[in-house]
Amino acid sequence: MYTVSTPTQLENALDDADARPKIIKISGTIDMTSADNGGAFTSASDQAARNSIRLTSNTTLIGIGSSAQLVNARVVVKDVSNVIVRNLTIMNPCDIAPVSDPNDGASGNWNSEYDGLTVDHASNVWIDHNRFTDAPQTDDLAPVENGKLKQCHDGALDVKNGSDYVTVSYNVFDHHEKNNLIGASDSTTSDDGHLTVTFHHNHFTSVGERAPRVRFGRVHVYSNLHEGSRSASVYAHQYSIGVGYKAQILSEQNVFEITGATSCPDVVKNPGSSSKTGAISDTGSLLNAAALNLASACAFAASSWAIPYAYTPTLAASVKTKVLGSAGVGRITVN
Question: How far apart are CA 120 and CA 123, in angstroms?
Answer without folding.
Answer: 9
